[in-house]
From TrEMBL:
GO molecular-function term, one example from the UniProt record: DNA-binding transcription factor activity
Parts forming coiled coils: none
Protein name from the UniProt record: HTH-type transcriptional regulator ArgP
Domain of life of the native organism: Bacteria
Family the entry assigns: Belongs to the LysR transcriptional regulatory family.
Amino acid sequence: MFDYKLLAALAAVVEQGGFERAAQLLGLSQSAVSQRIKLLEARVGQPVLVRAMPPAPTEVGRRLLNHVQQVRLLERDLQGQVPALDDGGLPERLRIALNADSLATWWARAVGDFCAEHRLLLDLVVEDQDVGLKRMRAGDVAACVCAAERPVAGARSLPLGAMRYRALASPAFIKRHFPQGVQAENLARIPAIVFGPDDLLQHRYLAQLGVEGGFAHHLCPSSEGFVRLTEAGFGWGLVPELQVQRELASGALVEIIPDLPLDVPLYWHHWRNGGELLTALTEHLHRGVAGWLVKP
């Protein structure tokens, strides 16, 4: 039989990114949390954590985290069916990974009513859309929004639609760098703006123009900051159309090559045995994103 106090300690260390914050969450001393992890490792006969900064689960640790994530959701279902088991504690908290651009545009409007109705608290983990699935694989989250179609073992994926990006720059930037008009072969030498090391949108955009290899770029790991840097003329970049409708209408930002968008399909991944709450959220998302995402 599992000792769920030990599993809770493992989940807290991974989710909180360290033993100290896990101890604060659980109301224990740091040494007590460490002892629980050691006892869990003694029970399973192998390490469940890589002692790094932040701590990361081993392969068996990931399996245990996947299990405890699903148990939490199933326990919520049982409390709803057997009211006497409801301890009247805090609302359910669901840990979800999603890309920063979704968080900055459609996510809040798509799920706000659902969270209010179901007394659901969200613990959001921001990851690039190309790598968000690693959080599911690590057992760190119960669901994620990402660009990968194939689910991890024990999970399902649902196509949500595509986020439309446009390559934008300020009028002054275009006048300065492209006085004779935009030429694709010159884009690699003109400063771009990239969200982070895992952001490959600009690479894809250049590839569809026949431009391969590296290119000059700033790094800006903030969706809002990305737009502000683009407006200020730091560089050109791929920006969600949803996020800059006002700037496009006013002319503060313009498309460097008109009518050449880049659509990125997004998928909702969730545990197959995630309980009624996760199923209801999945159905709500399936109905609710139609007004925000485009059909790929």
